[in-house]
Amino acid sequence: RVTWGKPIEFIFSLLGYMVGLGNLWRFSYLCFKNGGGAFLVPYLLSVAVFGLPMYIFEIAIGQFTQQGKLNAWDRIPIMKGYGYACIVMTMMSIVPYMLVMAWGVIYLYHSFTSNDLPWTVCGKITLIVKSSNTFLYDTNLHVPNVMRFCSTDKPWNTQSCISYKQWLPGNNSTILNDSSLVQNYSDTSILEVKIFKNPLTMTTNCSLPRYYVLRLPNEQDSIYGGFNWPMLICLVLSYLSIVAITIKGIKSSGKVVYISATLPYLMIIVLLIRGLTLDGALNGISKLLIPKFEELANTQVWIEAASQVLYTYAIGFASLTTFSSYNNFNNNFYRQALILVPVGAFTSLLMGLMTFSYLGHMASVLGVNVDKILKSGPGLIFQVIPLGFSLLPLPQLWSVLFFGMFYFVAVDSVFSDFDALVTSILDIFPRFKGTGRRRVLANFAVAFVLFVASCTQLTSSGIYIFEFIFYYGASGIILLLLALCESLSVGWLWDVNQFAIDLEKMTGDKLSLWFKLCYRYFIPAITSSIFLFYCAKWTPLKVGDFVYPVWANLLGWILSLCSLLWIPGVFIYVLYKGRGSMKQ
User: Fold this and answer.
1) Considering just the CA atoms, what is the radius of gyration of the chain in Å?
2) Are 348 and 23 in contact (CB under 8 A)?
3) Which domains, from first to last, does the chain contain?
4) What is the pLDDT of residues 102-120, one digit of tens each?
5) Which residues sit in the known binding site for Na(+)?
6) Which residues fall in the annotated binding site?
7) Which keywords does UniProt give here (predicted)?
8) Beta pairing partners, 542
9) 181 Cβ contact list (under 8 Å, min separation 6)
């Protein structure tokens, strides 16, 4: 089997995955939402109970068998369905992740400008507002003394577009576009219209992602909607970059990780240092770190901490096992994991500090609380953070740095899973192995299938398809169920004592008693409890104010079962076809 050119390439590949998209937009929001610094308690406990033991096993089974995610589970034939389940889930996770990567590409493209960043200005708008003391501006209200006209050079903006400079506190009289816009308002009236609670109708910052990037229909003018051709170009470029990186397997991707794994850390440090020098940065960071221990009584906090750990360390995905299969048999991955896992937790915290330093500065400049501007998921990266950079000197520079970092973070997240997916397929069809023309054709074939699936997210309903696939195709609860199956496999079917012998064969180190207890008892008990609680508290998927109908949620569970049903299906098949007694 092909091996890494140098052992350090394996380390860089794992580091790159840890600085992934889930860390960038998910950890900060979850930490703030679930008790600030108190969230670190269940998070770090989950790292110790879930993260480190499962991380060691995912690497161990790949190195021991020298096979990808699928064939590695021939070691435990009755559980080979787990390998199929992980491959299917990995494939479904790539589809929304590639769209996120394309979003980053289009923002990066628009950051290279000597003019104002396009999400900070309205363009040529003629807008007359007559008001006395307060400013009531809501597109849901019919204000008789307001005349609205549309943007001509930035058609994604609505008639109600207001540049962020017009609602900065203290800017009580603003004239734009040759005296065509006159506004008088107080600080209190800005908060009354809840700019940040309903940003999609209030700020130019959010008009670009809503009408240009997501291509949602413009309710006022019906300017946008339909298929998103600019995003199609970005999606094509994103897929081509992933194919180019993995076209020769680890012989090419092993060299790319030197840049893709280290550059994001360098940019994060640069952005963090700049963020810490801004007014209000410490206030933002305090919101992240000050603990609210009463939140620990909420079971949902522990569920989200456990699922975030699985995302951070790629537990249940195909990449860890595939990457470790390229190691030499005697590589000491055990000690490497003991170092890398704490680095992953530190990376999550570092990204949180960077994000909240800029959120704190935004809150200080705009005169509001941090929780008024904090959004989860893509909204944090594509609506709030870009506006935060707009408040800095040389906003184009900081925007390029941030979205450049975002691109490499996306590359690290996606190419690992893509390469693992292709490798697992090639393990099934050995005649396509190698670095020649057949490997290239395999890469393009897999990329084409995933590309077609990603194109379904480029319509006006694309954001709902995106959330649907992400929630049901690769959600935290699926990862928890996969972690349950994996822990039962190593703890009882492989037998944890035999696993300890095999690990010592490879590394020369003895497996800790703590890990043995986790594999056999702690992980199965905790994951089962979390799943039962999740079922009891389950609610339909909701995006904004839109609640998915019953049929859509049923379809979502079918999507989840597309991966999970492989486990009992193969289990029954092996029992039926296998020779010997039930125990054998």
Assistant:
1) 25
2) yes
3) 7-116+229-458+467-535+558-577 (1.20.1740), 126-193 (no CATH)
4) 988 988 998 898 887 877 7
5) 16, 19, 23, 412-413
6) 16, 19, 23, 412-413
7) Membrane, Metal-binding, Sodium, Transmembrane, Transmembrane helix, Transport
8) 547
9) 125, 126, 127, 128, 129, 166, 174, 175
